[in-house]
Amino acid sequence: MTFERPFHPRDIIDHPAVQWQQRGPNHFVAVARGASLASFPLPLDVEYHLRVQSPTHLHADGTVALGFPQPCSVSAPFEFRRQAGPAAPGR
Questions:
Q1: 16-28 tens-digit pLDDT
Q2: Domain range annotation of the chain
Q3: CATH number of the structural domain 9-81
Q4: How much is the pTM?
């Protein structure tokens, strides 16, 4: 995975229903209400908090909520770490 310069988190989640907001210098939040996926027919609410920890480390917490047939939510942490090896030019 490569990232644009300047960094924008759409390189991680690029979906028309997702609206990214920058809440702080290294804190981004993605929110989608009523999003639908081709593999899942019911609307989902998604919230994803991404924090840039360093040039080689990103941390995120994601939550997906579903209101039917009963209210339910699933949360998970995500870690992105740069692997050793040559970097792409300009990255």
A1: 878 899 999 999 9
A2: 9-81
A3: 3.30.1300
A4: 0.74
